[in-house]
Write a structure and sequence with these properties.
mainly alpha, Arc Repressor Mutant, subunit A, 2 domains, transcription, transcription regulation, RNA_pol_sigma-70_dom
Length: about 180
């Protein structure tokens, strides 16, 4: 890190707005380059960079040492990329299963009963993962540790469980003819 950048970091930490703005301009290409390697989509890259720069702007005064600035800024962008990825995945799951796709004859109680029956009918390896992950809300690594399987196996089994449940709810066995 050059002396000029170190001086800008010190001044920014002390509340000098001009130094902070100059520092963010200097750091933006590095942050963007890191985001390109970390984020999953180009939209996420732009969003993550903007949010990270805003967080750096707001929280620069909390930085304890000048030497920690680079790793601190990269941790911020990394967390933001991961947060955007999780949000995108959650939206994708919600988009896959729309209540509008269900037959019109469903009432809330019918849906709940069919949902419970679908979960109960799952093979044990899928049911365990589904309940731990989606009902009890454990993280994938926690589920993997509890069941003694890999995180990849958790994700695969969870996807399969959700697919089976979705198919069973969309085509109920006792539907009115």
């Amino acid at each position: 890190m050059g002396k000029n950048k170190e001086q800008l970091i010190k001044l920014a930490c002390q509340g000098d707005k001009q130094a902070l703005e100059k520092l963010l301009l200097i750091c933006q290409p590095d942050i963007k380059r890191f985001a390109r390697r970390t984020c999953s989509t180009s939209e996420d890259i732009e969003d993550a960079v903007q949010i990270a720069l805003w967080q750096l702007y707001r929280k620069i005064g909390m930085l304890k040492t000048v030497a920690a600035f680079t790793s601190w800024s990269f941790r911020i962008i990394e967390r933001e990329c991961y947060r955007l990825f999780r949000t995108r995945q959650a939206n994708k799951i919600n988009d896959e299963f729309q209540l509008d796709d269900l037959p019109a004859s469903y009432s809330n109680i019918d849906l709940k009963i069919d949902f419970i029956n679908a979960i109960t009918a799952l093979p044990l390896i899928y049911r365990q993962v589904f309940i731990l992950k989606d009902v009890e809300e454990y993280s994938s690594p926690e589920v993997a540790a509890k069941l003694g399987i890999t995180v990849e196996a958790v994700k695969s089994r969870l996807h399969r469980a959700r697919t089976i449940i979705k198919q069973q709810i969309k085509t109920p066995k006792n539907a009115d003819i």
